[in-house]
Amino acid sequence: MKLRRLFIGLLCFASCSSWAALTRVTDTDSLTLALGKAQDGDTIVLATAVYSGSFSVTQSIHLKGEAGATLDAQRQGSALIVEAAKVTIEGLNIRHWGRDLYYRDAGILLKQGADNVLITANRLEGEGFGIYGEHIDAPEILANSISGNGAIYVLDRGDGIYLKHVTAPQIHNNQLIFVRDGVYLESVNHSRISENQFTKLQYGIHYMYTQTDEAWQNQAIAVDGGYALMSSTDIYLHHNRVTQARDFGILLNITESCHVQANSVSNIHNPKGTVELGNEGKGIFIYAAQNNRIEDNEFSHSDTGISMAMGGEKNRLWRNRITANQTQVKYVGDAQLEWSYQGQGNYWSQYQGWDLDSDGIGDLVHRPNDSLDKLFWLYPEAKLLMESPVVLLLRWVERQFQPQVTSGISDSFPLMHWDEPAQVDGVSP
Predict the structure, then answer these.
(1) Residue 222 in contact with residue 241, Cβ under 8 Å?
(2) pLDDT for the residue 45
(3) How many CB atoms lie within 10 A of CB 84?
(4) Residue 59's closest CA among 84, 34, 90?
(5) pLDDT-derived band of residue 333, with 50, 70 and 90 as boundaries?
(6) Cβ(351)–Cβ(325) under 8 Å?
(7) HEC string of 309-345?
(8) What is d(CA 371, CA 180) in angstroms, rounded to the nearest whole number?
(9) How far is 79 from 381, CA to CA, in rounded Å?
(10) Residue 211 half-sphere exposure, CB side, CA atoms within 13 Å?
(11) Residue-wise pLDDT tens digits, 162-221
């Protein structure tokens, strides 16, 4: 009986070995040959060398690079084309793929059928797309470095990670610089994006026609815009940071039922120096977006803290910190809006009311874009008079009479203090 079990075990080992081969390659020809012969479950290890050309993966294998293993596409097409499911790509340097965006030139091109792919700990440098995937399920993109060419005009670069018609991607701990958008998602659902760093690019994360997504603890620095939520629904954007952006920190454009919570947005400035109506840096820009919840965020030290226009009225804003912006609020519309919820409004650095009952809520309604504020953002040069005795007197008179306003922003429960929101892991509410 023992001999029989031993014989069966040896047969099993031989069988397993036949479909789980480990191959080490050292040059372009041996890599091409190994990829052509590979079977599902195999591992191909690339020794330290430069492998020139474009390579295709058609089986469910593990492709792993030793330190310095480099795929060089010689500026033609895509460097690595994946056509099989359950492929792992790990530890490779990938460079010099093509820059033709129409033909989807990419460092790693994921074709339909490349489901459940794991791309981890790779370094990609090229001018087209970094990682491009379309009509696939559940890719995991973890701890990669993706760099484009900062000398190219930003809109002519490829996106760092471009996913279209993709279900449940996981994108975590990547660093992206000098690309178009860091992560571009179109017609995607159930994405999870966390702890990525975006620098010197257009938008950190760009959502288009997506739903049921979540992004947390990402950081965008020196970008055109931080997080652009466009024509999408049910996105939970929380505990992210953006600073030194040019256009906006967060954009809600034709977006519904999203939850924007506990994000830090600061230093959003138009780089031209002279801010004109419409081109100022915006902490958050709400444009034709409805039924969104915006709470516990900080919008500070920017040209405009909160900008709202063209049907952005049906949103709930409360417990935000709006401080030290050149213009706190810019609302272009005809409605009278209330920015508070369940007896709590927002913290405003320029609020000049008082709290006689010490309940932490200001006793006077705060109107951050009264008639004088509108005058200042229509004519920025008039801000030189903002703290003059005449302007302070006009504000005092306006508050005493509390005129019946027909349009603008009111916060009936302005907060006298600001409590930092708690840090949480990526768990949807």
Answers:
(1) no
(2) 98
(3) 19
(4) 84
(5) confident
(6) no
(7) ECCCCCCEEECCEEECCCEEEEEECCCEEECCECCEC
(8) 40
(9) 53
(10) 3
(11) 999 999 999 999 999 999 999 999 999 999 999 999 999 999 999 999 999 999 999 999
